[in-house]
Please model this.
Amino acid sequence: MSARILILDVLDPRGERGLVVDTQAAFDAGATEVVPLATGTWQGDTVLPADVKLLESALEEALAVPTQSMLVGALPNTKVAGAVVTALARDLPETLVFAPGEFIPSRAWFAGSAERQHRSHFQTLTREATVVVMTATESAAWLEKKDLDAEQAGTALCDSGAYAAWIRDEPGSVRSLDRLVANGRTSVLDYPAPAEDATDRAPGSLTALLGTGLTLQESVAGAQRRAACPTNSGGLAICR
Model:
């Protein structure tokens, strides 16, 4: 089955993370059409948020065409998150993968209300998500909980409305021991850990695989395998 995939994430001009990696991973996993939209741009270690009006217009145009699957990645600020939430309230693809990464609090002294609104948008997207992809540390930060282990994080995200949660292991070990929580059941994903400096292909792969009609378990297994694949000199995954 062919799949049209819509991907929102932050653009890294160096192509080492975010939108470029997600897009390539989706194509590698079988997507026939990928529409990338930048929610912001990395400038060194900081993110310049996208122009909200331009993003709103691009989202409206992109969602006017039938879309099998959508990935929502990093949302740099409240306005960008709000634009995505508003667009999805009108046109929600059947499959939504939500992988926002770490929560970075607003730095301005008056940013309390914006920070609360950002978390509110997170809760809205979580309720709409087919799969939320995060680490336990990221989940705890977004959910404003002190400490969560992997199973607790997955359960908390599902309790917040997600259909399923893929809780990624923290980097730094030889093997990854992830948790997949869905329908009240937890399974363990044990596979060779990607190198700490490897590009993260799991969210983009998962989005494409779900869009082609595979089951959740099949899609997660395929994305997990691709996450552990080595890359060639051009940065492309070499999966067998």
